[in-house]
Amino acid sequence: MLLAEQTFLFNLDPQLLFDVILLAVAVFFLFLLMSYLLFNPARKLLKERQDRIAGEINDAKADKESAAALKAEYEAKLKDVDKEAEAILADARQKAIKNEAKIIAEAKEEASRIIKRAQDEAELEKKHAMDEMKQEMITIASMMAKKVVTASIDPQIQSTLVDETLREMGESTWLS
Asked: Which H, E and C letters describe the chain, residue by residue?
């Protein structure tokens, strides 16, 4: 009766209590084993994923910052390009104005040369026409003189006519 009188905790029999403790110890060892075999790899996988996500976030922040820096750099370059383009255009305008003035000056010089050449040619043509006219006048005068001389062949009249003609023509006609 000793056994029957021995009551353990909460009126549980010792076999049941031993089974409960054994079961609790087995569950604890299973928990440790499962924790080591399943939970630790799962925790490791979650930790790696968390680290990877944190790294990607940091990379994204760094990329965003570098993109902002590049954007600022490109905007500054665009402003510089606009200024440079304006300077190039201003320089081209100045060169165009200089070239325009140079071309106009050359055209005026060429026009003045052409006008001078035309005036010289006109002057030469005028002198040539005057020389031809003198020749014609001499020819007409000699024909008239021939007719007059043939009409009156008197030597005294002929001598007087030659002297008169020479005086009328004068020295300036013979010099030119």
From this structure: CHHHHCCCHHHCCHHHHHHHHHHHHHHHHHHHHHHHHHHHHHHHHHHHHHHHHHHHHHHHHHHHHHHHHHHHHHHHHHHHHHHHHHHHHHHHHHHHHHHHHHHHHHHHHHHHHHHHHHHHHHHHHHHHHHHHHHHHHHHHHHHHHHHHHHHCCCHHHHHHHHHHHHHHHHHHHHHC
Between CA 82 and CA 31 the distance in angstroms is 72
End-to-end CA separation in angstroms for the chain: 184
Planar angle of CA 57, 61, 65, nearest 5 degrees: 170
**pTM greater than 0.90:** no
25-82 pLDDT, tens digit per residue, is 999 999 888 888 888 788 888 999 999 999 999 999 999 999 999 999 998 888 888 8
Cβ atoms 14, 8 nearer than 8 A:
yes
Q: What distance in Å separates the CA atoms of residue 158 and residue 174, rounded to the nearest whole number?
A: 21
Q: CA 116, CA 8: separation in Å to the nearest integer?
A: 146
Q: Rounded to whole angstroms, how far apart are CA atoms 132 and 136?
A: 6
